[in-house]
Amino acid sequence: MRMSTGQPLARDAMAYVLAGGRGSRLKELTDNRAKPAVYFGGMSRIIDFALSNAINSGIRRIGVATQYKAHSLIRHMNRAWNFMRPERNESFDILPASQRISELLWYEGTADAVYQNIDIIAAHAPKYMVILAGDHIYKMDYELMLQQHVNSGADVTVGCLVVPREDATAFGVMHVDEQDVITSFLEKPADPPGIPGDPDHALASMGIYVFDTEFLFEQLRRDAADPDSKRDFGGDVIPYIVKHGKAQAHRFTNSCIRAAEEIEEYWRDVGTVDAYFEANIDLTDTVPKLNLYDRDWPIWTDTVVAAPAKFVHDEDGRRGEAISSLISQDCIVSGSIARRSLLFTGVKMGSWSSVDEAVILPYCNIGRGARLSRVVIDSGVRIPEGLVVGEDPELDASRFRRTDKGVCLITKSMIDRLGV
Length: 420
Known about the structure:
It is a single chain. By secondary structure, the protein is an alpha/beta fold. It is built from 10 helices and 29 strands. The strands form 6 sheets. Strands 1, 4, 5, 6, 8, 9, 10, 11 and 12 form a 9-stranded mixed sheet that branches. Strands 17, 18, 20, 21, 23, 25, 27, 28 and 29 form a 9-stranded mixed sheet that branches. It is globular and about 70 Å long. The mean pLDDT is 93. GO terms for molecular function: ATP binding; glucose-1-phosphate adenylyltransferase activity. Its EC number is 2.7.7.27. Homotetramer. Pathway: Glycan biosynthesis; glycogen biosynthesis.
């Protein structure tokens, strides 16, 4: 068994973020951007959570693999994450699928997205690799996971969530022994195995893996030579190690970051329009489940130079106000009202308009007299004067993307089709 030396292991680690996913379940929100580039929480993008966790954990070498519609994501990272300095032994590499191995192949899977960049990783000479998904919302100290990896002597350590067994069918699921050594890895099983001593719950993979770098390289080369592999960590690499080596489960509860008022371990896959809407609206709660005001574990993002939010007019029926809402900078709430809503940077609301349970992405304009409830509005949309959404389900479904839970996604092309 290897033992930690006491020096932070993060200093010898590189975080590698897999950020190439299509995010097709977010429908039109990912028509022009990858899922990790989707806006979240008023100012951030989804990828900022994994990157901020890495920085806050002490990791100073980061690579991000991109693929699907990556322009918005790359532009954001160039603006928000350009503070890493090579003279301090820091690095931030953006690694688009660039056909480095073969002129015929893009990234074939999550494992291939790392394999194709082995030479770039090797140039940084990290001792440990922390492989991350770039499309989840959570706060986690990867240093604690690194410590468990070293002290357990594992070949791979897999980040896991404890979930109700009936909900685990959508995940890769670990079957573990009493020491949380993984004995089998099942991808989306119909009958997930329970946890020893807790049969009603299962351990679901978070898509977070820790490896010794040289061992990871060996496994990636072996996997690349296997003609039957799909080049995927969850489907190929991890099950092989479980069978032929030692794979250790790391429970999220042991490294999640919670501010004093956060009562639960917060992790969300905002992969559907409903999940995305709910996670954003939850931030408007008096005591939200996710604390974005935690200065001890900040979520880093692009710093926009803009004016403060502004509320104008104070007469009956035309008063600028917000109730249980988050209003970002450069917003103007003019003689209108926002209730339990989240307005991203640069949103303008015209007089006599109202929004209720609305997630409004940057630089939208809400026309005078519009009434909107339970909506997600994509960036840059101009809502026509007097438009009503959220009161007639059939009409809403004929004009916009309406979910099973009654949330309407509104994009510019949908508004253009209205011809108003």
